[in-house]
Amino acid sequence: MYDIEAKITLLKGNEKDLRKHKPVSSGYRPAHLIRDDYLTTGEHHYYDDVVLMPGETVMGTITFISPEAYPRTLWIGKVIRIQEASRIVGYAEVTQIFNDLLRKQD
Q1: C-alpha 78: how far from its chain's center?
Q2: CA angle at residue 94 from 88 to 100, to 5 degrees?
Q3: Which InterPro entries does the entry link to (predicted)?
Q4: pLDDT at position 75
Q5: Residue ranges of domains in the chain
Q6: Strand, coil or helix: what is 3?
Q7: 19 Ramachandran zone, left/alpha/beta (phi>0; psi -120 to 50)
Q8: Segment 6-11 mean pLDDT
Q9: What's residue 21's pLDDT?
Q10: pLDDT digits (tens, 9 = 90+) for 10-53
């Protein structure tokens, strides 16, 4: 089951950081900075099984591996940093929340 739907952007790299130049597809499992003190892995699924190229933005879903560790931390419009180790490789803007455990209460 998917936890969220998001507008997912993969950053363009530079000559010193070649990892950012590689495209990714559904099944990609980077780290996500859910809270300032909590990174977790999430699996991406891009609509229409598109390949996400550096510099592009697509719609898709993310399934997190441990949502019970950070309940009530997401809201529509929140931007989550996508990382590979300490490198920021993209961003995901939350557009829908499917897992009520993650929905921040007003």
Answers
A1: 11
A2: 125
A3: Transl_elong_EF1A/Init_IF2_C (IPR009001)
A4: 98
A5: 4-102
A6: coil
A7: alpha
A8: 96
A9: 63
A10: 998 765 554 556 899 999 999 999 999 999 999 999 999 999 99
The tokens describing 20, both together, are 């950012």
Residue 31 CA to residue 88 CA, distance in Å, equals 9
What would the two tokens of residue 21 be? 């130049």
Instruction: Record the tokens describing residue 67, joined without a space.
Output: 């949502």
Residues 6+ apart with CB under 8 A from 104: 72, 73, 74, 75
Q: Cβ of 101: how many Cβ atoms within 10 Å?
A: 13
CATH of 4-102, one of 2.60.120.1440, 2.40.30.10, 3.40.1280.10, 2.40.40.20: 2.40.30.10
79-84 and 57-64 beta bridge pairing: unpaired
